[in-house]
Amino acid sequence: MTADSPETAALRARIRELMPRAKEDLTALVAMRSVADPRQFPPEECARTADFLVEAFTEAGLRDMRRVTTPDGTDAVVGHAPGPEGAPTVLLYCHYDVQPPLDDAAWETPPFQLTERDGRWYGRGTADCKGNIAMQLTALRALGGPDGTGFPVHLKFVAEGSEEQGTGGLEQLVPLRPELFAADALLICDTGNFALGLPTATTSLRGLTNVVVTVSTLQGEMHSGMFGGPAPDALAALVRILDSLRDEAGNTTVKGLADDGTWDGVPYPADQFRADVGALDGVSLLGTGTVADELWARPAVTVLGIDCPPVVGSSAAVQAKVRARVSLRVPPGMDAEEARDALSAHLLAAAPWGARVEVEPESVGQPFRARTDGPAYRALGSALSRAYGKDMVQSGQGGSIPLCNVLAARFPDAEIALIGVEEPGCLIHAPNESVDPAEIETMALAEALFLRTYATPPEGRAKRSGVTS
After folding, report:
1. Tag placement on the chain: N or C end, fewer CB within 10 Å?
2. Which CATH number is correct for 6-205+367-455, 3.30.310.50, 3.10.450.50, 3.40.630.10, 3.40.190.10?
3. Nearest CA to 166 among 37, 274, 308, 64?
């Protein structure tokens, strides 16, 4: 590991001093149940979280922090800070809404209470994405606080309030208020390192399409003792349809979609993946490609939920009508709308016994591949390497961030980089989500170093645009 320069050592020490404050930030944020779905949690919780961000980032040195209502009815939090004349403009992005806790009984600690255990901080949103908010606050305080030297670039800040809900409010806001987003580099802080302590830039995101499939076979439920056998069972028909989406090896087999893509970036060892995902002994991983191929280069289908009688309370009846939500992750190079149409056609064609099938399309998000040959990526690689003492690697991610495509289309000359604190051990979206505070600390250092490095281009590089509008 190369020794820190005096400047890096001072910044590292400053951020370490700020970590108790970062824990206070995250403790407050986790306690706010900012699930952007009023059917599950009161909308006042999201409003309270947005107000917290306005106050916290104002204190960290940003200006004109405020809530902006997006077309889906949720609030984004925006602000800015000027840098030196001629400096580039950097947009910092995160989201403050979180997934619901799902199964409270599966949590070993209260989901909306930050709890320290075995060196990690547990609670819903500790990583995705409130841990990234704490990281950004810490980086900005280190640069602009009383012991810092001020922001070296023009800054813009956007925190989304409905990313997990997937209703696209911020994507719709971009063409309506482009001045809030225009920048030379856009730092999307909603991913993480490929492994704990391994500095990583995410360069590939799978797209997403969801559909709801409804299967009907009878006018109403019928007694299974009197009619079971010849009576067409809607639930059995649905099981057959869903089973047709994978072959015996577990490959996704949606008719019309290629399933032979390969990944040429950082490999993902199968043993490491088994440990990361918590695969049970003796249970095989799915697909005939490598883990990285299956994750980042091929379509992947998942049954998200089924509407049918639960085991407890079920009766002796042949089911007449059932539903399922089916999700399809789409790799770069594949159009998500075409994939949705292929999935819908497959589900309709797979219906057995003349069962009536309806497919209702839901959200669609295109896949994304970042451009990695510009000055922002060079600065990011240098910053991450200095922060961690290791070379930066590039990886894909199975998750979808539709905003990236919207920003890339609107600002084609801007560089988009995806980083964050969400390494595999965080278990984002699952019970017992957690974050390693060392990732918050080191990523805060990396972000601060990036802002300084990007602000000082090598000799001969063209003058920055310095977008400030």
Report:
1. N
2. 3.40.630.10
3. 37
Q: Give the C-alpha separation, 434 to 401, whole Å.
A: 21
Contact present, 336 and 209 (Cβ < 8 Å): yes
For each of the chain's 469 residues, which pLDDT tens digit applies? 678 999 999 999 999 999 999 999 999 999 999 998 887 888 999 999 999 999 999 999 999 999 999 999 999 999 999 999 999 999 999 999 999 998 889 999 999 999 999 999 999 999 999 999 999 999 999 998 544 457 999 999 999 999 998 788 999 999 999 999 999 999 999 999 999 999 999 999 998 899 999 999 999 999 999 999 999 999 999 999 999 999 999 999 999 999 999 988 788 999 999 998 889 999 999 999 999 999 999 999 999 999 999 999 999 999 999 999 999 999 999 999 999 999 999 999 999 999 999 999 997 888 999 999 999 999 999 999 999 999 999 899 877 787 899 999 999 999 999 999 999 899 999 999 999 999 999 999 999 999 999 998 654 344 444 454 4
- Distance separating alpha carbons of residues 277 and 173, to the nearest angstrom: 35
Fold of 207-259+299-365: Alpha-Beta Plaits (3.30.70)
CB atoms within 10 A of CB 99: 18
The dihedral region occupied by 2, where left means phi > 0, alpha psi between -120 and 50, and beta the remainder, is: beta
C-alpha triplet 282, 285, 290: angle, nearest 5°:
140
Nearest residue to 203 via CA among 299, 297, 75: 297
- What are the backbone dihedrals phi and psi of residue 180, each rounded to the nearest 5 degrees, phi first? -75, -20
